[in-house]
Every structure is written in C-alpha cells, then in structure tokens.
Predict the structure.
Amino acid sequence: MPFCTQCGNRVEPTASYCAQCGTAQPRAAAWQASSQDPLHGISERTASILCYIPVFGVIPSIIFLASQKFRHNQRVRFDGFQSVYLFVTWLIVSSAGPFFLIGIPFHGSLSSVLKTLLEICWIFLLVKAAQSQQVHLPILGDLAARSASEQL
C-alpha cells in the first residue's frame, strides 16, 4: 500500500488524493494512464516485431495501425502496412494462385514454393525488425511507405 507524498499517511493505490491532507497523488495518475492504454508498455521495436509474425502478424498490425499510441509513429505504421500487404499477397497466392497457374505444369508445386518464399520473407523481416532495421520490399514496401505517410 503506498503512502502520501506530503504527509506520509497510507493511501489506496487507486486514490487520486490523500484522505488526510488532500494532496494529489502522482501514482494514481500514472496507474490510470497505463490502465486506459492497453499498449502502454509496448515499445516501437516490439510493435515492429509483432507485425511480422508469419500469417498471424496481421492481427497486431491492424491493432497498431488503429491505435492512438502509434498513430504518428512512421516506423510502426510502415511495418504494419507492409505486413498487411504481405498477408494479402499470401492470401492471393494461397487461394487464387492455384487457379491462375492451372495451365502451367507442376502448378501445385509452384504455388507451394511461392507460399514458402513469402513465409521466408516474413521471417527475414521479423529478424530485421528484431535488429531494429527496416527493410523495404520492392513493391509492397513502396505501397507501405505511401500508406504510412498518409496521416489520419
């Protein structure tokens, strides 16, 4: 249980003011700020890493793109958009790719190879994000940079 910064009286952890002397308690303000923002403890680097979890990274990417905390953070926004675009590419290769490749011999194998290459790309981007480096993919990176530069 914390104590008042002015008189030393015991104060509830969630109390904004001391019951005895009425002094405002700074811990309560910090606790309230962290309880209102669920992304309070997530750093820029951690957010970038979470964006590049293969296939499932699209979920944190959308959360970070919609959050108030990372709204003006160009790096996290770029990584989020690049991850979303990579996921859309993976979906196209997974679902529509086999239909477009039907006339090509070994079309099933080619589709599997493309999906594997996209997953390797995700892992590469995850490692680079863990090293605090930002990689721009040829087409998707340009789209992500353009999307990240647009402010809401």
In short: The chain has two domains: 1-36, 38-149. DSSP finds six helices and no strands in the chain. The helical segments are 26-36, 44-51, 58-66, 74-100, 107-130, 140-149.
